[in-house]
From TrEMBL:
<dbReference type="Pfam" id="PF11127">
    <property type="entry name" value="YgaP-like_TM"/>
</dbReference>
<keyword id="KW-1133">Transmembrane helix</keyword>
<keyword id="KW-0812">Transmembrane</keyword>
<feature type="transmembrane region" description="Helical">
    <location>
        <begin position="7"/>
        <end position="25"/>
    </location>
</feature>
<dbReference type="InterPro" id="IPR021309">
    <property type="entry name" value="YgaP-like_TM"/>
</dbReference>
<protein>
    <submittedName>
        <fullName>DUF2892 domain-containing protein</fullName>
    </submittedName>
</protein>
<feature type="domain" description="Inner membrane protein YgaP-like transmembrane">
    <location>
        <begin position="2"/>
        <end position="56"/>
    </location>
</feature>
<keyword id="KW-0472">Membrane</keyword>
<feature type="transmembrane region" description="Helical">
    <location>
        <begin position="31"/>
        <end position="58"/>
    </location>
</feature>
Length: 67
């Protein structure tokens, strides 16, 4: 697995988690969904992703997007 795929899996899991928390706990968790969306847009524009930095530190090999 590359960092690119790990970031996509992580983002997808976080969106699903935030939707579940919004449904079962509180509508305040919609802010988590907004944060995830803003972070995805920011990383697409700037090329910087905090999750990619963490995955790189864990030793996952880089892909095309996050070198």
């Amino acid at each position: 697995m590359t960092i690119d795929r790990a970031v996509l899996v992580f983002a997808g899991l976080m969106v699903l988690l935030s939707v579940a928390l919004t449904y079962w706990v509180s509508q305040g968790f919609l802010l988590l969904t907004v944060f995830i969306g803003v972070n995805l847009i920011q990383s697409a524009i700037t090329g910087f992703c905090p999750a990619a930095t963490v995955f790189r530190a864990l030793g996952i090999k880089p892909g095309c997007a996050f070198k």
